[in-house]
Amino acid sequence: MNLTEITSPPAAAYPVRALADHLRLGTGFADDGSQDALLEAYLVAAIAAVEARTGKVILERDYLWEIARWHSGDRQGLPVAPVQAVNAVSLIDFEGGETLIDAGRYRLRPDGLRPELVAGVLPAIPHNGMVRIAFTAGYGPVWEDAPADIRQAVLLLAAHYYEYRSIDGAEREMPFGVSQLLARFQTLRLTGDRL
């Protein structure tokens, strides 16, 4: 199982000014904006940590996901949520040959926690081959598309990283308040099978 991010959010999508306001950084000085690159780096890190904890993609982007077997014959859970569109499904044989599956043979079942690719019968994966699923995931292309509590958790975590930036390895755990904000977005998995 291999999940690859194909596109990244543009730099303008990161809420650098919102984080600066949250941190109460001064404005109107000659060096106004001098911390922007650092703030963006902590936002990227905080978003990555929140996405890893919740399985939710905050800013919309494209992914490729490769798997060697289906979870069941008629449905396959997708690794992140929310998924906006399944763009292509291809079968890859042992020698690397690719066969595009007709989009009429499957559909996306959207779900905020666990979206699925569903079909009457999913196509057979070639022996020693895999299936490659191209999809777009994320709450939307802009920061305001994400739920308010996820946005607040990201700002709190980025601020935490900023405040403890000079301490090597210390205080890198997710703060309790951030964990509480994210708790309702985490998917409980009882079977041991993530998807």
Automatic annotation (TrEMBL):
InterPro entries linked to this entry: Phage_CHP, Phage_HK97_gp6-like
Ranges in coiled-coil conformation: none
NCBIfam families found in the cross-reference section: phage_chp_gp8 (TIGR02215), put_DNA_pack (TIGR01560)
Record protein name field: Phage gp6-like head-tail connector protein
Upper classification of the organism: Bacteria, Pseudomonadati, Pseudomonadota, Alphaproteobacteria, Rhodobacterales
